[in-house]
Amino acid sequence: MRAGLVMLADTRTNAGVDNISTYRKTTLWGRPGKSVLCLTAAGNLALTQAVVNRLRRGLEDGRHLDDATDMVTAAEIVGESIRAVHRADGPALEAHDTAFNVTFLLGGQMRGESVRLFQIYSAGNFIEAMSDTHYLQIGEHKYGKPILDRVMGPDTRIHDAIKLAMISMDSTLRSNLSVGMPIDLTVIRADTFEYDLERRIDETDPYFLTIRQRWSEALRAAYLDLPDPEW
Amino acid sequence: MRAGLVMLADTRTNAGVDNISTYRKTTLWGRPGKSVLCLTAAGNLALTQAVVNRLRRGLEDGRHLDDATDMVTAAEIVGESIRAVHRADGPALEAHDTAFNVTFLLGGQMRGESVRLFQIYSAGNFIEAMSDTHYLQIGEHKYGKPILDRVMGPDTRIHDAIKLAMISMDSTLRSNLSVGMPIDLTVIRADTFEYDLERRIDETDPYFLTIRQRWSEALRAAYLDLPDPEW
């Protein structure tokens, strides 16, 4: 977090395993030179798109995500947009027994603040990653969590964080069909107030393939290298 | 599976994070020299204990797990015991809005058969691991799945399978409080018709600590060794 922020999202949505599609779940916001914001979504696609559409249009009281000058206000605006969608769509979803299920990550930096990262819930409230938490995950998070728990730290370099995000995503991609390529990578370096990198990565990306193959080989070598039990 | 079977279960049960306890989830069955069976449980503890108690007592029609002479019949007996518990407890659970939630793994070998592994569901039906599937997991399975997906194969040695089971469990233990030490390890080598190993492993076990520490170091080294992106 000191060096900046790496955000990575897949693009798979599904209405059952027999009905999968590709949708971008990452949107970028802010005013270059002043603020830089990346928003990623998990949950019901109709709902997360409705939240983003309301953010694009601006809230009913006139507030706009791009106008926010501190990150807490930005997170509040996203939360308020979620609540507006809940007011509009919640009763109809309830009538159809469909859960109101959305989660967002909002990361970025405003002039005068450090890089900050928030997780915003269906109820529109949110938590912020603090000094003991070096990453946040939403959606299908379990497969990719162990490597982050073992290695992520406050002083992780940006390039290492990119590698870790790729490894974590690759573990999830291999083990769960509800997560799929391509993936969208956004990198924000601290105190630049612009996007260092915004890149779509598909199955043919040479760097991703290198990471995937070399990581598998390294794991295989590492476990073979562990001592056998003496029992 | 060719070399045999490694089964590993934790002992954590919880009724909320403020109420955790330790219960053995592994039971052993069979007749030495003829059959060797290991049963592990996940789900509601009252239900899984009820299923095991009925198995110990024998089914109402007189069948007993120790008497089975083929693995499919053994899996059917476990399934029938689950159905008997469902008939006895299901209506009361439903009245209290509690899910009937149990899953078992049954692994072992009978004379005249190869080593076989089954997963038995709440409904008492079951699947068997076939030639394309080299492991099965129940309970909190996601954290520990990626390493198994990457490395497990039909020709994995028993000692390597023990290492992999420990690494997979360690990943889960680190990332999820609902899984906890000690862990129970059972090893069945093909064509011996007895338990090669039955061992309880706690946080002070030197081999487990070695695996935990060296695996973490190896992962850290492996990811640092990956090339940086050129972007």
UniProtKB/TrEMBL annotation, chains A, B:
**Superkingdom, taxonomy of origin:** Bacteria
Q: Which InterPro entries match?
A: Ntn_hydrolases_N, Proteasome_sua/b, UCP009120_prtse
Q: What is this protein called?
A: Peptidase
Species source reads Tistrella bauzanensis
